[in-house]
Design goal:
It comes from Cellulomonas xylanilytica. With 286 residues, the protein is α/β, with parallel strands linked by helices. 43% of the residues lie in helices and 19% in strands. The chain has a single domain, classed as 3-Layer(aba) Sandwich (Aldehyde Dehydrogenase, Chain A, domain 1). The strands form three sheets. The chain has a five-stranded parallel β-sheet with strand order 8-7-6-9-10, sandwiched between helices. A three-stranded mixed β-sheet has the order 1-3-2, with no helix packed on it. It has a three-stranded antiparallel β-sheet with strand order 4-5-11.
């Protein structure tokens, strides 16, 4: 007996929930061979604003958690990804048209990437911060702190690894994230959202939008409650205009051409979105 296909409509991931786009728009996601795979929500300006509100509300709890706790939460994501490995492999094979071996390698690299960054959560501060030499009876200590809400345009040519490589390092220091997934390859991003929703990641820490980066990015770049902008996947956009819009609200911007390769794990990707606070304290008795 031949069963009827049940086309799936993937939703956005905002504030720990899976809403439809407020605009009601969707678009078809097709395989590398042009076959229909699913419908995906096409996020609007309002959806981007809702995602920023959710991310802002989550900053206090996530940045206030201990570094050890954040590391354990990130490691838990890797554990859950390992359990759904076959699903992600199948999605990447269909979407990118690569072999099962290549898809497996991408999924394994994404899992390893979560583990790598989880391990840095309670260690990066010892590398990025320091006790500064001063003349006088004082301690002078530099401490890295999270920037706040980071908006990310994910790499557009990668289903999973590029997304993970951009999102994970921003989370390590306590930032929250609004990420625009690959427009052409969004299914693994939404499947990852399902992993996040069933993990220990607090709601609002990661918010995933699907649709057109060209439509959504300008609103994130100009949003006054976004503290930083990662344009790693915005090379095909007019990212100079995005930088100008971000400058109006004094955002930190990581442009696509700055040399930080999202496909390579790097301490520099963690420190790209931290601020350094310097504290003075007297020595001895007061």
């Amino acid at each position: 007996m031949t069963r009827l296909a049940v086309p799936k409509t993937y939703k956005l991931y905002i504030g720990g929930a899976f809403p439809r786009s407020e605009s009601g728009r969707t678009y078809e996601v097709v395989s590398a061979k042009g076959a229909f795979l699913a419908n995906a929500a096409q996020a609007s300006r309002k959806d981007a604003r809702d995602a920023v509100v959710a991310a802002r509300a989550a900053v206090g709890g996530w940045s206030g958690a201990t570094a050890y706790n954040r590391g354990q939460v990130l490691y838990r994501i890797a554990e859950l990804l390992e359990g759904r490995r076959a699903q992600f492999v199948a999605e990447i094979v269909d979407a990118e048209g690569v072999s099962a071996a290549a898809a497996t390698a991408q999924v394994d690299a994404a899992i390893d990437r979560w583990v790598w960054y989880a391990g840095w959560a309670d260690k990066y501060a010892q590398v990025a911060g320091n006790a500064n030499p001063v003349s006088g009876p004082y301690f002078n200590i530099s401490v890295p702190e999270p920037t706040g809400v980071v908006a990310i345009i994910a790499p557009q040519d990668s289903s999973l690894l590029g997304l993970v490589s951009a999102v994970a390092p921003a989370l390590v220091s306590g930032n929250t994230v609004v990420v625009v997934a690959s427009e052409r390859l969004p299914l693994s991003a939404i499947s990852l959202s399902e992993v996040l929703a069933t993990s220990d990641v607090p709601k609002g820490v990661v918010n995933v939008l699907t649709g057109s980066p060209a439509e959504i990015a300008p609103w994130l770049a100009s949003h006054q409650d976004v503290n930083a902008l990662d344009l790693v996947g915005a090379g095909a956009l007019d990212w100079i205009d995005l930088q100008i819009a971000a400058a109006d609200t004094l955002k930190r911007v990581l442009p696509p051409e700055n040399g930080l390769d999202a496909a390579a794990p790097s301490l520099d990707r963690i420190t790209a979105f931290v601020e350094t606070k310097t504290v003075w304290h007297t020595k001895g008795l007061i």
